[in-house]
Amino acid sequence: MNERNQGTTILLAESGSAVRDAIAPHLDKHRFQLALAANGQEALRLYEEVLPELVLLDSGLMLPDGLGVCERLRSYSNVPIVMFGEGVDPETVVRCFELGADDFVPVPFEPAVLLARLAALLRRAPIYRRSRVDETAAVREAAKLTFGNLAIDVGNYEVTIGGENITFSAKEMQLLIFLAQNPDHIFTLEDLYTKVWGAESNGDLRTVMVHLSNIRKKIEPNPVKPRWIHNVRGFGYKFSSRHTPT
Q1: Are 38 and 63 in contact (CB under 8 A)?
Q2: What is the pLDDT of residues 180-239, one digit of tens each?
Q3: How does residue 125 score in pLDDT terms, banded at 50, 70 and 90?
Q4: In this structure, CATH architecture of domain 2-124
Q5: Of 118, 139, 111, 125, which is closest to residue 78 (Cα–Cα)?
Q6: Residue 80 in contact with residue 102, Cβ under 8 Å?
Q7: Is 115 exposed, middle or buried (0-12, 13-18, 19+ CB in 10 A)?
Q8: Can you name the CATH fold of 137-239?
Q9: How far apart are CA 246 and CA 240, in angstroms?
Q10: 79 neighbors 127 (Cβ within 8 angstroms)
Q11: CA 156, CA 47: separation in Å to the nearest integer?
Q12: Is pLDDT larger for residue 106 or for residue 125?
């Protein structure tokens, strides 16, 4: 595990030092590199400098606030974002997910549990990975899913609608890819949580619903009457391959 993490950089943006002091020894033990920012502006600047593999973001950050930093990063990057905070109300947590956060960790937390969640997210969301140079054109083409005007390039983590690029968070992208790779198959919320977030990511199933809602807003011409992602009442959700553009 340690060798695999060597060179993996986590950007921690925190208004204080409590989280840093709690997790820094654990990250160092597992060979992660830690970049530190004390406010929103510094976080955005450091992101451009170090290009971290994951961002750990304080929801109470200022100048701009944590939500603003999350929204800004998500406007141009699919880097995994984990937000944290103490005494945060449910509406703010939901807002974090709506702006593109991949996970939310309440403070206080067990450092070992947080480390496991970060590792699971990094393992399931290799956002910077691109098609290997030794892949054949046929293999790369097979990694592209096309449904009408919706095209999903699995190898490059890119989605276009009618040729226009659509930006997704890491978990939104992973959830969409999973559904699109299993078209017309119905999955419960529990199924989707286990497949995308992982059994070790003990969390709220509402997280899945928020991400599904975000995906619909981005790919559906009319989210109220979806073309692609359907709720099969009493069973779960499915990605439909049978609908054609209208």
Answers
A1: no
A2: 989 999 999 988 988 887 755 556 788 899 999 999 999 998 888 899 999 999 899 999
A3: low
A4: 3-Layer(aba) Sandwich (3.40)
A5: 125
A6: yes
A7: middle
A8: Arc Repressor Mutant, subunit A (1.10.10)
A9: 15
A10: yes
A11: 21
A12: 106
Half-sphere exposure (Cβ direction) of 22: Cα atoms closer than 13 Å: 15
Domain boundaries, the chain: 2-124, 137-239
| Residue reference for tokens 């890491």 | 170
User: Could you tell me if residue 42 is left (phi over 0), alpha (psi between -120 and 50 degrees) or otherwise beta?
Assistant: alpha
* pLDDT for 129 beyond 50: no
pTM of the entire predicted model: 0.59
- Phi-psi domain of 228 (left: phi exceeds 0; alpha: psi -120 through 50; beta: other): alpha
Per-residue pLDDT averaged across 156-170, rounded? 88
> What pLDDT, on a 0 to 100 scale, did the predictor assign at position 10?
94
